[in-house]
Design a protein that fits this description.
Layout lengths: L5 H20 L1 H12 L3 H29 L1 H20 L4 H16 L3 H11 L4 H29 L2 H21 L15 H4 L7 H6 L1 H22 L1 H7 L4 H29 L1 H18 L6 H18 L2 H10 L4 H30 L3 H19 L14
Helix pairs in contact: 1-5, 1-6, 1-7, 1-8, 2-3, 3-4, 3-5, 3-6, 3-17, 4-5, 4-8, 6-7, 6-17, 7-8, 7-13, 11-14, 11-16, 11-17, 11-18, 12-13, 13-14, 13-15, 14-15, 14-16, 14-18, 16-17, 17-18
Amino acid sequence: MKSSYRWVIVAAGALMTCVGIGAMFSLAVYLQPMSAETGWSRTGISSAMTLDFLVMGAAGFAWGTISDRFGPRLVVLAGAVLLGLGLVLASRATSLIQFQLTYGLLVGFATGAFFAPMIAAVTAWFEDNRSLAVSLVSAGMGVAPMTISPFARWLISTYDWRTAMMTIGIVAWALLIPAALVVRRAPSLTPGAAAGPAAATGAVAMSAGEAFRSPQFIVLASAFFLCCAAHSGPIFHMVSYAIGCGIAPLAAVSIYSVEGLSGLGGRLLLGLLADRFGAKRVLVAGLLVQSFAIASYLMVSQLGEFYALSVIFGTAYGGVMPLYAVLARESFGQQVMGTVFGAMTMASSIGMAFGPWAGGRIFDAFNSYAWLYVGASTVALGAVAVALTFSARPQTQRLQVA
């Protein structure tokens, strides 16, 4: 499919993942001024982020199913409206529980409408360069820490946290609602369209239930879970670990920024490599590099060493993320892509929620992050082992009855 409009879909998807993920993850920027003004505990405020992860994962599954049935435009338009609404309501919260319900539930539910449905939509528009296209949509997540979070910090410094959160909610409406209106299904999926390549060759379609019972789904979802469980703890606790190694606090924060920027480049690099050498090979290689990079943090102590390792780590964990969608599309086809990838995203979100909690428990027990990095590296090796067992679903043929 060579339509130039497919790149409009990619651009819209990148914008949505940037604004959606950026708005949700900016809670870290609000944390201190919110606690100082309201007296709410940081644990209570931070728990909204845990809710966000869990709700976003479950919502991605639900939104993906709706997208398969009614198309992506309805889903992302609803997500855009709900995201702005959640931020505006959260900015007016007068109690901690009210904030947790609006930011932790509504914002998480809205954010789930963007990633899996837009990834699924883009895979339908591309037969060639599919890995690159998916990586570009995912790259919006890498841009978010460099755009939305600094904007929120500037608004807080200029006004206050309530004005900042409400402003970002309004900006989300202004950017995402028009972007949602340009999203549409690929021509091959529109009613009355000519049969696509799969139909023309008589490839057997797979239902969502069959996909969930298939070894391909079990392997991909398990690898995705292990991959995210492995890197989420080291990412979340990186600043604290670096400070404990003697790095100045401001410099420690910059290590986190280097990781995020490298993750953006990794998505593009590994996407190009996957188009050339195959998604499975690149995924396995990226997961192996991720495992070694996590373990290597135990052997660094200087700022320059942290920077160098963060480039490798960020490239690896950022680059592998879009490849699960490419492998899912190759195995399950397009008709259930939203549902299947939404379920895989739910598994990854559970892994993401597990890592920070486990790292905190390990530090509280041993007063050290050493076992976090040992354990995370081991889990990452588990992801490599699982990914190696992946074998794409054969495209069996069905005789067509006249």
